[in-house]
Model the fold of this input.
Amino acid sequence: HFNRQILSWKALRPDIVYLLSTDIPLSDKDKENGNLHTLAKGDTYRDEYLTVRAFGSTDIGISFLVQTPEGATVFLRELEDIAVCKEKMDIVLFPVDPRLGKEYMRGPLQFVKRIKTTIFVPMHFDEAFEKASAFALLAASEGTQVLTPVRRGETLNLDHYINLK
Done:
């Protein structure tokens, strides 16, 4: 989510590159920043370090696929960093959003395969409760229990599922 304060980081890091969605309201002064690039769905930004492709979003704005020259996606690199820090997690809230397309369970599955997860709570699935809960079968093969709310506003009491002592 955009926070105008990031534009002040250029004073600390003159080599910073900003990649922002075209729907973010920017002043003429902001637009004069040579390090600021706006992207719309379908646009690509490339430099010597990254290739960034803009995709649509299930909300407003855009989403990004970021690749390094070696072809590693940022998600897998970040997942590896998390795994080095924490090999097991008791409770994880993670997007399982069918609006992302047919591969919507790919990221969550990569997560539970890499990091032992006791309880997994899907998020960002809007009203698609059935599709979000479909992840439970894949997660179970990794020893992970999925708790999916069955209606908007439902409260899940995790004390019933896990001993957090």
About this structure: The mean pLDDT is 88. Residues 35 and 66 are 18 Å apart (CA to CA). DSSP finds five helices and eight strands in the chain.
